[in-house]
Amino acid sequence: MIFAFPGSIYLDSNLCNRWRGISLASFNIFKNMALINLKKNEFQAKIVYYGPGRGGKTTNLEYIFKRSAKHINSNMVTLNTQEGHTLFFDYLPFDIGVINGYNLKVQLYTVPGQLKYRATRRVLLRGADGIVFVADAMAVRRAENIVTLQNLKEDLAYYKKRIEQIPLVIQYNKMDLLEKGIRLLPIETLEKDINRIPNTPSFVASAWQGKNVLATLKKIILTTVASIKNDFDSAKIRQNHRLNSEVVNI
Predict the structure, then answer these.
(1) Is 23 helix (H, G, I), strand (E, B) or coil?
(2) Per DSSP, which regions of the chain are E strands?
(3) What are phi and psi of 131, to 5 degrees?
(4) Whole-number Cα distances in Å, 55 to 27, 63, 113, 142, 236
(5) CATH classification of 45-227 is 3.20.20.140, yes or no?
(6) CATH 3.40.50.300 boundaries in the chain
(7) Are 79 and 86 in contact, with CB atoms under 8 Å apart?
(8) Average pLDDT for consecutive 10-residue bins of the chain (250 residues)?
(9) Longest dimension (CA), the chain
């Protein structure tokens, strides 16, 4: 039997039996971390592509799916509902190694960008371990970028998180449109509008052409893995301290 704690950790009954007499509250220190599937010996990290509607989130994931087939162990699923559509699939990254003995599986999601689908976006953001914010570089979309970034902050606040606390990579998409004479925002303006957190990585990109799509993905995976490892190590230290205290009191 598997005990599932949404947004936190999977624990099987054998593990619980080993620590019989110790309160399950001890495991609450793992909440808000990536899911750990002990049966499969793997971390399951969730990365969400967030941004304004028609900004290129879906095009990013479609390109990744086509170019990275050997690292994908599932079909790309499209969910069409009355509140828009989203894509997701499992991605098995390479050259990452293991985290504390666990393999890594990344689940990639897009969210519907239009404001009227706000409720769906918020649900899909739950449990996200990393976020790619895909901004639309067209000058006419400047206000929508800013509003959507504010929506992201509010959606994270709903789960008691701040944007500064979660791995984030920013992508300025549609740079290929400059060749077609379409007015784009200067990079300096995009950085001023969107990239307000020090040391947040950003990429100029063309999801349609594939430019910097995989570079964006690699960066968010590496950043997310580093964050998960840090959280896991910190949680283990707190766990050992608490378990030692409970054993003394048994």
Answers:
(1) coil
(2) 2-4, 10-12, 35-37, 42-50, 77-81, 84-91, 103-110, 130-136, 168-173, 202-204
(3) -135, 135
(4) 40, 14, 8, 11, 40
(5) no
(6) 45-227
(7) yes
(8) 26 32 38 68 88 91 85 71 56 63 84 78 91 98 96 96 96 97 97 95 98 96 89 71 61
(9) 73
